[in-house]
Every structure is written in C-alpha cells, then in structure tokens.
Design goal:
With about 625 residues, this protein is of the alpha+beta class. The chain is built from 22 helices and 18 strands. The strands form five sheets. The chain has a six-stranded antiparallel β-sheet with strand order 8-11-6-2-16-15, with helices on one face. A four-stranded antiparallel β-sheet has the order 3-14-17-18, covered by helices on one side. A hairpin with a 4-residue loop joins strand 4 and strand 5.
Length: about 625
C-alpha cells in the first residue's frame, strides 16, 4: 500500500543527519593538509545545506548522493581498515535513508532489508570490476615534507633525543615476511637514516663528497644485486611518516620504481609518501651493494679539540694494525668500565659532552654509546658513521587469517654505528649491546624488567590491550596487502596472468564488463522484484484490486498507512461502508497475520460466488451516495 513519495520522511531526514555527524567526526580525525580534505568539507557543507532546505524527496536524494561522494573521497584520504569500516557504515546508513524515503515512514524491517540488499547486490559487482580493471594512476599530490606523520626520528641526533622518543609505545611500523620466518631478535635492525656530520656534540645528515679516503685496495662498487629465485616479498606498512627515507633491513630489492637505495644504504622514495606509506621488498640473503661503497673523507672528519680525552683515547688505538683490532680494543674498553644503560642519563655539559659521558657519568642511552663509539673510531683512523632506525619488534603469530607480522613500536627506536673494514665493507657495530645485551635480545622493555621505575616511563599499557591492538594490526595488515597493495604494478601483473597478450585491451574490457554487469544487475533486480511479488503477495494484489473503486473516488491509503487505519478513516467519511469494510479487514487480517490462518477455501470470498471481487461489490451498492459527495483528497 505504497506509492511514490511526495512528502519527506522524518526518519530519512534523521538518518541523513546521522550521516552528516559521522562525516564531521571523520573529518576531525583526518589530516587537514591533505589536498582533498577541503573538498570533503565543501561536500559535507553542501549536503547539510541541501538537507536543511529540503522540501521534496528529490532534495533528500541529492543530499544523500553528495554524502556518498564525500564518503568516497574520505576513503582516498583515510584508506586504513578502521576508517574504511566507519566509511562503509556511513554509506550504508545513507543508503538506508534513501530506502526509507522511498518506502514510507514506518515500512516493515524486512522490506527495508530487502531493498537495501538489492541496492548493494547491484552495486558490489560494479565496484569489484572497477577495483580490478580501472587503471591505477600515479600520485596526483603530495604532502608537505616534514609535516605529515608522527614518527619521532629526525635527521639530527643529540644526546637525549631518542631516550625521550622511546617513551612513546605507539605503533611505528609493521612488517610481513610472507611465508618466511622473521629474523632472530639480534638481527632485527631496521635502518632509516645515516648520519655522518659530527659537530662535537650531535650528528646530522651530510651530502656525500668525493674523496680520498678510499685506497687502491678498496674494491669498486659492485653492480646492483639481482633478485634471488623464489625470494619472498616483504610487505611494509608504516604509521604516518614524514620522511622520504624509509625503514628496511639493508637487504632486499624494492619492487616499486619509486624506491631507490643510496650508496649509504638508505632506502628513499622518489616522492613524499605522506600518510601511512605501504611498500614491498623482495628478500635477498646478501647485503646490498651499498655495503661495499668506499668511504669518503666525511666519515673521518672530527672537530679537533671538541672532546680532547676522547680523541686521545681513540688515537691510542691507531697503532693497531687493522680496523677490526681497533674495534675490538674499543669493545674491551667499554666492557671493562661500569657503563649503565638507562632512560634517564641526565644532561651533558655543552663543553666536551662526549668526554663527560665516557669518563664521568658513564650513564646513557643508545645515542650516547653510538655517538661516542663512532667518534672514537674516527679518532683511531677508522671511517665510521651513525645509523638511526629501529631495533627489535614483537612477533605476532598468524592468528588473524593471514601471515604473521613484526610489530615495531616507537619505543624500539635505536641508533648504532657502522665502521669501514676495507675489503669486508661496512660492518654494523652496536656498542649498546656491549653494555646491555638484554636490550638487543629482549627489547627495551625486557632490558628494563628489573627497573620498574624506568619501565613505567614506557607507557606500555595493559598486556591484554596491547594483544588486542596487535590482533587488530594483523587484520589491518591483511587489508593492506589485499586492498591497498593492489597498486599499478600488482594490477598489471594480475592482468598479465589472467589475460596474457590481451591485457593491452584493458580499457575496452572495462567498458564491456561494466555494461554487462549493469545489464545483468538490472535484470536480476527486476527478476527478484517479480519473484517477490509472485505467490507470497497474492492476497496483497487481491486487496489492491478490491480497493480500486475507492481510489476512483479519491480514497486511497496514505504513505505508511495500515489497512486498519485506512478502513477506519473511510468509515468516518462514509458510515454506510462500515459493515463491508469491517468484514474485508477481518478476513484479510485473519488470512495474512493469524498463526493458524484458515485456508483460502473457507474464506467467504473463496466460497462459490463469493470471491474477493464479490465481497467488494458490497461496497459498490452505495455508489450513488458516494458520487454525491465531493472527491476526498
């Protein structure tokens, strides 16, 4: 008993208000520096204005379509799993609002679900085809450098810098190694930045200069490493990231042309990635060719007189025959003294800070040990540099339906050293492990287990909450692998596998499949509608035919009006129709809603000469009286 809506459904209006509120909350959690952010703001404002001035159902439809467009743009801005679920729920509410407007104020829940599922069933195949076949475009925008993201890593390293960062236990990155096992804890070093410029206190990034530190015995840089047969693909998912330098192990080959490795072992992006970058590397067992790139004079530079005691100690090792022997001498020296690894090392003086650390306080965090050791090596004549990144990570098993992954937190931020050993290339040396081996084997929290005061500074939170977050992270990584990871190269590889030489006809295939899908979807919707109206609504069709005489005189059900309410309204206008209307309403309700409805054969209008049309003829007796009254609107 429905018709085309000519009035606004209050429930549809309320649902659209809920959609606008959801969009506003999602905007509050989005990065306002994203180029599409203000476009979404405009769409939300337009939808709100259209809803505010809505007078016709078409106004609500335009508002809902604008809201759905805003949801689609938000999916580009925030493509993660959690935002996608919120966006999907928001779109579903917008669709339900459209259904309510079409069906009436209080339609049955089953009817609403049917209509909603029909719309979704027609649109999902089309969205799937667009996802698979629509050509992937390159980046059309980029975020301002050093403004997007929350990582605390910086291209400047000063004493105390990382010790404040590691108190943040929020996620930094996740790594999936496919079917390969993760590296052991002592090998979980994820390099990001290489710092070579030393001013006597802190370290910074410097430009490479040609130089003369390389000798005739130094080998030339080897050619780029080729992928190993069957090398597993590593998936890296970072939290909001402000740097063009990306974490990696120093082993592997980028699978994207936008990624390059420098001769310092830094993985760089050709563009500013911005929010939550995703990239893949092909695993190789060999260290990259960067490890054999000879040093320059910059890796031997040391400001003379800035830390005189450090310089004297390093020069005392300079008489040893090989760089490796000088490294071993430094290792013995650190282990023979009461150095202590701590989150609260205290401030160092401005004058000769490394001397104060090595010979007075002897308390420090990883940057203290990496900085002082690297400076000692330079004083001993060994090219050295500081590397900043992450060390460690918790392995999360494959309990979420995908592969396991390594959960790396901001509290895993770390710095270590690299020294040049001639033909052996650059060697990683972590002096922190000499002082506190537990930091490397068990992570920061494990090394502080016997110091509850410092452990409380990490703000780790309850174990159950962290486990819940890790399980959710696994789902997010799975979503990233299958949805966000389906980029241009992945799409071309898939098309090449399934279409072979026909993949160049991708555009024509997209048009043809879209046309076929729309045709099939419309046909299925009509078929389902026809099937729904067949036997199950036979009584409804009989009732509609029975009420046609009343419609001819202007009496018809209002939107959402039940049969009982309609008959009561007609009886108030025409009391002479009370008896036949009551009988019609009684028999219809008994057949439609009674638990033990009488069979059709015993209903009055199923008796010989008493079908439903016969029952309605009783309403035709007073037609002359009806025609004397004005038409009821």
């Amino acid at each position: 008993m429905s018709q085309a809506r000519t009035t606004l459904s209050p429930r549809a209006v309320r649902l659209q208000q809920v959609v606008l509120g959801s969009l506003a909350l999602q905007l509050l959690g989005s990065d306002s520096r994203h180029p599409l952010f203000w476009g979404v703001v405009v769409l939300v404002v337009l939808a709100a204005l259209k809803l505010w001035e809505a007078r016709r159902p078409s106004d609500l439809q335009r508002s809902a379509l604008t809201q759905l467009l805003a949801v689609g743009v938000l999916a580009v801005i925030n493509p993660g799993l959690a935002p996608s679920l919120v966006q999907g729920a928001t779109a579903l509410v917008a669709i339900i609002a459209i259904v309510f407007q079409e069906l009436g104020e209080l339609p049955p829940v089953r009817r609403v679900l049917e209509q909603t599922l029909r719309l979704l069933g027609a649109s999902i195949p089309l969205m799937l085809l667009l996802f698979l076949l629509l050509p992937r475009l390159g980046p059309l925008w980029q975020l301002p450098q050093n403004q997007a993201g929350r990582t605390g890593l910086s291209d400047q390293l000063n004493p105390g810098g990382l010790s404040s960062l590691v108190r943040d236990a929020s996620p930094a990155l996740r790594v999936s190694f496919g079917k390969d096992p993760p590296p052991p804890p002592s090998q979980r070093y994820w390099r990001v930045l290489v710092l070579e410029a030393f001013d006597g206190r802190g370290w910074g990034v410097s430009q490479r200069v040609p130089a003369a530190a390389a000798t005739a015995t130094d080998p030339p840089p080897p050619p780029t490493t080729k992928p190993e047969p069957g090398g597993a693909s590593q998936l890296w998912l970072l939290e909001p990231w402000p740097l063009t330098q990306l974490p990696w192990s120093g082993q592997g080959l980028p699978e994207s042309a936008e990624l390059r490795t420098s001769d310092q072992g830094v993985l760089r992006s050709q563009r500013l990635i911005g929010d939550r970058p995703v990239y893949t590397l092909t695993h190789t067992e060999r260290i990259g060719s960067w490890s054999l790139v000879p040093p320059t004079a910059r890796q031997l530079a040391l400001p003379i007189g800035s830390n005189p005691r450090l310089e004297a100690l390093g020069q005392s090792w300079g008489s040893l025959a090989t760089p490796l022997e000088r490294v071993q001498a430094a290792q013995r020296w650190f282990k023979q003294r009461p150095f202590r690894y701590t989150l609260e090392p205290g401030p160092l003086p401005q004058l000769a800070p490394m001397d104060a650390f090595l010979f007075q306080t002897q308390k420090g965090f990883c940057e203290h040990y990496a900085s002082s050791f690297t400076a000692l090596m330079r004083a001993a004549g060994v090219p050295a540099r500081v590397v900043v990144g992450y060390q460690g990570g918790d392995w999360v098993g494959a309990a979420t339906g995908g592969d396991g992954y390594l959960d790396v937190r901001q509290s895993d931020a770390h710095s270590w050293s690299e020294v040049w050993l001639g033909a052996s290339g650059w060697l990683r040396v972590d002096p922190t492990g000499w002082v506190d081996p537990a930091r490397i084997e068990r992570g920061l929290a494990g090394s502080l287990a016997d110091r509850p005061g410092e452990l409380a500074l990490l703000k780790i939170g309850p174990a159950w909450l962290r486990q819940l977050g890790q399980r959710w992270g696994g789902l997010d990584l799975l979503w990233t692998r299958w949805m966000l990871g389906f980029d241009g190269p992945a799409q071309q590889a898939w098309l090449g596998q399934w279409m072979g030489p026909w993949k160049d006809w991708q555009g024509l295939l997209l048009v043809l499949t879209m046309a076929g899908t729309i045709t099939v979807a419309l046909g299925l919707m009509q078929l389902l509608d026809h099937w729904r109206r067949r036997p199950g609504d036979r009584l409804r069709r009989q009732l509609e035919r029975s009420l046609r005489p009343l419609r001819r005189v202007g009496l018809e059900p209002l939107p959402g009006e039940s049969l009982d309410a309609f008959c009561r309204r007609v009886r108030e206008i025409h009391p002479s129709l009370s008896a036949p209307l009551q009988q019609l309403e009684h028999h219809y309700s008994q057949r439609r809603f009674a638990r033990q409805a009488p069979p059709l054969a015993v209903l009055p209008w199923r008796q010989p000469g008493h079908d439903l049309a016969t029952a309605i003829r009783r309403l035709e007796l007073p037609w002359l009286e009806l025609r004397q009254h004005p038409r009821q609107q």
